[in-house]
Design a protein that fits this description.
This protein has 499 residues and is of the alpha/beta class. It is built from 16 helices and 20 strands. Helix 5 packs antiparallel against helix 10, helix 10 crosses helix 16 and helix 13 crosses helix 16. The longest helix has 26 residues. Belongs to the peptidase M17 family.
């Protein structure tokens, strides 16, 4: 889909979208079109339930007096309460509606409406951004139906008196969208196509943006002593990998340590010897969602030339049962030197993260660490499928993430951590067990990870088990991989840590 930003005149063909605030108050452009078509817009409003509320659309098909295929009135609601996400959602809604109707071109007339409580006042850029996010489809393996009406929209233009600033704002946002798409594509790929080696190969796409990529093979992993990670992948014929991505965008004068983002990348999780039930196991292709988010975040930051130093580190494994697989009762020595009694081979993601967390801290001494993982089914029971859980040793980081999450509508909620939960991991045979029992499963998983975080190192664990994949459509995403976390962490970085 081609995006353009114009200020000279509104196109005379295709669909036109004009805004209406709550109470049916027409925007300047809407009034102009109302005059052109003999008051048809006003009559349509008076003869309908349309009130200009947020999310409402009113369509006049093939209106007389103009050549445009249709005019759509888009309700904004209270103009004093408009947030950036409202405009993004409107863009996604318009893309879906018009594509489903076979429309090929649309022009959005923003009339320079403002975003409440935001430095980003370019509503037109946000609408285009929302449409771009909604346009993603995973159809790589479809041989039929690719060109149906669901993807008909070819041109999306924004009309405003200040088209240049809107275009500049959109250009920056589009780089974040590319990161989101990267994550969605990775998470959507089938496990016979995306496994540790092919996943690691995807990092080559980041090298073109200036990201330094290092891939550790199994020989490197075992030589370094990443035995916890290695043990998870022993049952698979696919060789495990660790991918390290470095973006150094801070000014040369900056001596700031990097931010570190660590992702769990289990490309398929059978549960290993502790085999999962067959029903729903196909969903375990997205157990690499944490690593997918880190890859997408690195693409977003590098794409928009973020002025910050960042390290992204991901452990990539496949958890399979075989004669060589890890067994319940095994004891492994982690990279940190701490020993782990493996009581359940389906609690494998924390073993992967343990070694990558320790390695990343020792090698890069980051100013903070954030890890992401589709770690526990208990997280879905606790918070459902719209909010991610966060666990941390640092109040400031949690507040920053919560604020960023609200601004991009990728919300997070902090859950408690305490010694009473940590003690559940104590083992009679090793330094710790890899599970703490059924109760408080998401918390004990976080407590396990904290045992591999250096003292006084600011750290947050984000459990995205419930939000990495969606079975329902959202305004800016179809069903399937959501790309959750890319926009959240990009905003977190932009608001708090860039030069």
């Amino acid at each position: 889909m081609k995006f353009s930003f114009v200020s000279d005149k509104v196109p005379s063909t295709g669909a036109i979208v004009a805004t209406v605030t709550e109470g049916g108050q027409l925007s300047t452009t809407a009034k102009q079109f109302d005059d052109k078509i003999g008051g048809a817009l006003s009559r349509a409003i008076s003869n309908s339930t349309f009130k200009g509320k947020k999310g409402e659309l009113l369509e006049i098909l093939a209106p007389g007096g103009v050549e445009n295929s249709r005019i759509i009135l888009a309700g904004l609601g209270n103009p004093n309460e408009l947030k950036a996400t409202d405009f993004e959602n409107l863009g996604g809604q318009l893309y879906k509606e018009l594509s489903a109707k076979g429309e090929k071109a649309v022009c959005i007339c923003t009339d320079d409406v403002k975003v409440h409580g935001s430095e980003e006042d370019n509503a037109g850029a946000l609408i285009a951004y929302g449409a771009l996010l909604r346009s993603y489809r995973f159809d790589t393996y479809k041989t039929t139906g690719k060109n149906d009406n669901k993807n008909s929209l070819e041109e999306f233009s924004v009309f405003s008196t200040d088209s240049k600033s809107i275009e500049d704002a959109y250009e920056k946002l589009s780089k974040v969208a590319e990161g989101v798409f990267f994550t969605r594509q990775l998470v959507s790929e089938p496990p016979n196509e995306l496994y540790p080696a092919t996943f690691a190969d995807q990092a080559k796409e980041l090298e073109a943006l200036g990201v330094k990529v290092t891939v550790l093979n199994e020989s490197d992993i075992t030589k370094l002593g990443m035995n916890a990670l290695y043990a998870v992948g022993m049952g698979s014929e696919r060789e495990s990998k660790v991918v390290i991505m470095e973006w150094n965008g801070a000014s040369e004068k900056s001596a700031e340590k990097p931010l570190a983002f660590v992702g769990k990348g289990v490309t398929f999780d059978t549960g290993g010897i502790s085999l999962k039930p067959a029903a729903g196991m196909e969903d375990m292709k997205f157990d690499m969602g944490g690593a997918g988010t880190v890859f997408g975040l690195m693409k977003a930051l590098a794409g928009r030339k973020a002025k910050v130093n960042v390290v992204g580190a991901c452990g990539l494994v496949e958890n399979m049962p075989s004669a060589n697989a890890q067994r319940p009762g095994d004891i492994v020595k982690s990279y940190s030197g701490k020993t782990i009694e493996v009581l359940n081979t389906d609690a494998e993601g924390r073993l992967v993260l343990a070694d990558v967390l320790s390695y990343t801290q020792e090698k890069y001494n980051p100013r903070l660490v954030i890890d992401l993982a589709t770690l526990t089914g208990a997280m879905i029971i606790a918070l459902g499928n719209d909010i991610a859980g966060i666990f941390s040793n640092n109040d400031t980081l949690c507040e920053q993430l919560s604020t960023a999450g609200l601004s991009v509508d990728e919300r997070v909620w902090r859950l408690p951590m305490a010694d009473c939960y940590d003690k559940l991991l104590d083992s009679d045979a090793a330094d710790m067990k890899n599970i703490g029992g059924r109760a408080a499963g998401s918390i004990t998983a976080a407590q396990f990870l904290q045992r591999f975080i250096d003292k006084d190192r600011p750290w947050v664990h984000i459990d995205i088990a419930g939000v990495a994949w969606s079975t329902k459509e959202k305004a800016i995403a179809a069903k399937g991989a959501t790309g959750f976390g890319v926009r959240l962490l990009d905003r977190f970085v932009a608001d708090n840590y860039e030069d």
